[in-house]
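user: can you give me the structure for this one chain? tokens are fine.
assistant: on it. calling the predictor now.
[tool input]
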Amino acid sequence: MSGPKKLDLKTIQEIRFLYGNGEFTQQQIAAKFNLSQSTVCKIINNYIHKNIPTIQIGGDAAVKLKAGYKYGN
């Protein structure tokens, strides 16, 4: 049986970002990164990889994302 995969900073942040946007389910993210859904859940809820900060978007960008605009429009 193999041990846990080593995930880099960019991958962890991308997983949290994709789920945080609400566009992808945990199962879809798991398939995209070849992980189990339970691993994705643990990443999202900071049970594992706690030391990696979550990407935060503030200011006008956050408002535009919530309003349905794409960044840069």
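assistant: here you go. Confidence is low (pLDDT under 50) at residues 62-67, 69-73. Residues 9-20 form the longest helix (12 residues).
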